[in-house]
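## retry 2 of 3
previous attempt timed out at serialization; input unchanged, resubmitting
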Amino acid sequence: MQITFLGTSSGVPTRSRNVSSVALRLPQRAEMWLFDCGEGTQHQIIRSDLKISQLCRIFITHMHGDHIFGLMGLLASCGLAGNVQRVDIYGPPGLNDYLQAASRYSHTHFSYPVKVHAVRPGIIYEDDEYTVTCGLLHHRITAFGYRIAEKDRAGRFNIEKAQELQIPPGRVYGQLKRGETVTLLDGRVINGADLCGPTEIGRKIAYCTDTVYCDGAVELAQDADLLIHEATFAHQDADMAFQRLHSTTTMAAQTALAAGAHHLIMTHFSPRYAPGNELDLKDLLQEARAIFPHTDMAYDFMTYEVPRRREKQLTEV
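## retry succeeded, writing output
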């Protein structure tokens, strides 16, 4: 699970930061999932190491322009390129109407299936490896955050040990890999857990923007390996944050702390904190780290590999 930040500015792009978009790359499946799609996102993808041909899912948080204005252009380009198989899009009510109108008035017709799913709180996607949940945030319009949870996987099967025990290969190996207890033809009882390494704990990512501090964001970020959270304003501009229902650096850090998250990466920064102004982004980072030390700030084209946690061996209790 590799994260690439494609846009980290709020509201409007700057010379060094585009507007909101984050890509999640799943190399083992040759898939790319996109979270928000601000204007210029397809240009950012082209400038990165990502492959548009791997795009298959897009998750939209809300209908503000800096999160959706790049969506129609990206989808149109995918059709012209002819190498995207299908795209599923998840987002708030009104998203399908927006895309239908844009398609109609621009005379754009997709050469591949596009399905729009209107989301509501709860599980919105699940397969054998991942579950995606959405929850309500607190913004000026309906806004959702997303939680991507990788399912736990059995530890590596120790085939060398199985051979030493003279366990015959075949269907029994599959049972042992799943941790089942098997009785062999010679009467021996083998516990599959004894032949498998530690369980690989599924990784969890939460994506929360745009929002003021709220319980919904804390719930989505529970025990997350990575929380991506907006931090539009500095703490001294908290009044402005409450008026516009955006987060300060301290709100993002408090969300990570309350949720027991393992790592916070802030994004969606106001252009007002440019170098030479009273406050710049280094000051914002210090504010957040005073509350939640394991905090970093995103920048365009920053990549982050989400680390995997392993379940402790029972003997280590």
